[in-house]
Write a structure and sequence with these properties.
Blueprint lengths: L8 H4 L1 H5 L18 H22 L7 H23 L4 H4 L4 H21 L25 H22 L8 H26 L6 H31 L2 E10 L2 E8 L16 E6 L9 E4 L10 E6 L16 E8 L11 E6 L3 H14 L5 E7 L8 H10 L2 E7 L9 E2 L4 H7 L9 E5 L2 H13 L7 E3 L2
Parallel strand pairs: 7-8, 7-11, 8-9, 9-10, 11-12
Antiparallel strand pairs: 1-2, 1-6, 2-5, 3-4, 3-6
Length: 472
């Protein structure tokens, strides 16, 4: 293995050129969109706190108890966070592109966990004038509490609790994921409307023009996010449709689905993407609706206009992949994601589990197409030897690229001679490059549990966080 210390792209390309490998023009792979996570967190906190600041500055109230201020603050902050959550779920690459879809969805869930208790506690902090303690009695003279405000507040609380509970226990619900997702979107819209009515009818702060204007901007932004996801993007997909070209079994429960642009229609011939990115895919029917699912692109940009995905049978949608027929209409929303290789030929390590091999295949196929000679280590975990997806191609790539593969299986058969068990810290320590380990780029993909465990182990082995890319 060559010295893994990164050099300039020009000097690192000479080895592949000397070996006579064909080269194509390199793309700016590593260009990323979106706010850095720290900037995104600061922007979110600033916007969530903005209505509190406006309320304090623009509408000073007569002195009142600390409990009343805390109650109003909780309600205002919870409403602002709820409306901002719409933007986080709107697939805006310019906002969350660096965060990745996995962490964006996790942040969406964490916000729900924070908003629910804040909403529940908010009305009970207002003081009872007879006891002087916290109790909901409409004691604050600035709160015009009436029947409408009570009904909308209680309705919002019940609806929010139902949405959080059904999201936590979604797998046990007697409905398909697609149905739940539609209901969740409708529920979110209803929730925003109920809280808006409650804020304008029960809050003295929200009656001030500056605060009301801020709520109006956030409500419009939330509505625009929903319209963008459910109207604008599907319309663009309708203008540039795809169809299924092939469906091939590449593992015990894994399929490779390949699409091509539909002939005779479309505003562009093919999706432009970077290696390892993902799209939201709809199969069959039309582009409008909520039946789309995220899949990493497993083919190289050089394969365009064909685009392919490695899909494992797992949920309602993926279990039917093997029955999909050529010619089935398909619609793509993307590309998204930051799981993109460095343009410079820096030593790279991939740690994949199961279907997490999909975006890794996209990288490796791109390296083959461009004659890339970077040192590569792949650690690929599967349940059994039969479930190793695209094994024949991976073995062939090991002969064409500067690639070392370590297969790891949990349930080996009698013929297995490779590593067994799970990806542990000891296994990583034994298989990662010895020299220049901290200078390598690490890509980890394979589900939330594996990704979190591998990230912790890499950090414990001295790998800097900035060198690790997790998920898509």
């Amino acid at each position: 293995m060559t010295d893994p210390t990164p050099d300039s792209p020009e000097s690192l390309r000479t080895a592949a050129d000397a070996a006579g490998r064909p080269r194509t023009r390199r793309r700016p792979w590593a260009a990323q969109h979106g706010l850095r996570p720290a900037m995104l967190a600061l922007a979110f906190l600033a916007l969530a706190a903005a209505p509190l600041a406006l309320s304090a500055l623009a509408y000073p109230l007569a002195p009142r108890s600390w409990w009343d201020d805390a109650a109003s603050g909780l309600g205002i902050a919870a409403f602002a966070a709820l409306l901002l959550a719409f933007a986080l779920s709107g697939r805006y690459e310019r906002i969350t592109g660096r965060l990745g879809v996995d962490w964006t969805l996790r942040l969406h869930r964490w916000l729900a966990y924070a908003i629910l208790p804040a909403t529940a506690l908010h009305p009970f902090l207002y003081t009872d004038p007879d006891s002087g303690g916290p109790w909901f009695a409409g004691a604050d003279p600035t709160l015009p509490v009436g029947l409408l405000s009570l009904v909308t507040g209680m309705g919002a609380y019940i609806l929010l609790a139902a949405m959080v509970i059904t999201a936590l226990d979604r797998d046990t619900l007697p409905v398909r994921y697609e149905t739940w997702r539609r209901l969740h979107a409708v529920g979110a819209l209803m929730l925003a409307g109920l809280i808006a009515l409650h804020a304008f009818t029960a809050s003295g702060y929200s009656a001030h023009p500056a605060v009301a204007a801020f709520w109006g901007v956030l409500l419009l932004a939330a509505a625009a996010s929903l319209i963008g996801v459910h109207v604008v993007r599907p319309w663009r997909q309708w203008r540039a449709p795809y169809v299924v070209e092939t469906v091939d079994k590449v593992g015990a429960d894994t399929w490779e689905l390949r699409l091509r642009p539909r002939a005779g229609r479309g505003t562009h011939s093919a999706l432009t993407f970077r290696p390892g990115q993902f799209v939201w895919l709809k199969l069959g029917g039309g582009p409008f609706g909520a039946d789309d699912h995220p899949f990493s692109i497993a083919t190289a940009p050089e394969d365009a206009p064909t685009i392919g995905f490695t899909i494992r049978e797992k949920g309602d949608f993926t279990k039917a992949i093997g029955r999909c027929r050529p010619g089935t209409p398909a619609y793509l929303d993307g590309p998204h994601g930051h799981f993109v290789p460095d343009e410079a030929e820096v030593p790279t390590v991939y740690i994949a589990g199961g279907v997490g091999i999909g975006p890794v295949l996209g990288h490796l196929r791109t390296f083959r197409a461009e004659g890339d000679n970077r040192p590569i280590t792949l650690i690929y975990a599967s349940a059994s030897p039969a479930e190793i997806a695209e094994r024949a191609e991976l073995d062939a790539l090991a002969g064409e690229l500067n690639l070392t593969i370590h297969y790891v299986v949990r349930a080996p058969d009698a013929a297995w001679r490779g590593r067994t068990g799970r990806i542990t810290r000891d296994l990583l320590d034994a298989t990662l490059p010895v020299q220049g380990r901290a200078d390598c780029r690490y890509f980890v993909c394979g589900g939330e549990t594996l990704e979190a465990a591998v990230y912790r182990d890499l950090r414990a082995l001295g790998i800097p966080a900035r060198r690790i890319v997790v998920g898509s």
